[in-house]
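**User:**
Make up any protein.

**Assistant:**
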Amino acid sequence: MNDKKIQIVDLLISHSQILLRSRDYDEKLSQWGKGNVSQGAVLHKDYVIFDPLPENAFGANVYIKIDNTFILDNNAQRCMVVPFFITDKNKLQIASAAEKFDVNIDVTNKTYSLFYEICEGDEIYYNLTLVPDKDTITAKFLLDDPWGGVKGYPLKEGLF
């Protein structure tokens, strides 16, 4: 039985994207429109891409975890919450343009609130926290940030 609650991946981040998906790679879902670039995310129900913000390719730790509640990291510089649906838990992956890893945490629900944090401690790191949810939450910024994020401002789904 798998009861893993957290997985840490050292991800080579490139092309300004961190991707979490529960389905196969899809070129069509990976497209960024001007609106997506502005909000820093491309959102689909089971396929989300976040802008990591630094421009160049670099390695960073990405912490993917399941928790019953979300607690904001003290080092968070940007934070968003989006709905996330597990279409196929066997296809759950974290990826960038350069590499991909299977995510082996204990996802037992279908619907989650996915919290995305960009954090800066000694180095930049990322938190992706999945909180089981019965109702679909509204995608929005949870912090004011220096890149234009406004706390409470809604995020749009799809390509725009």
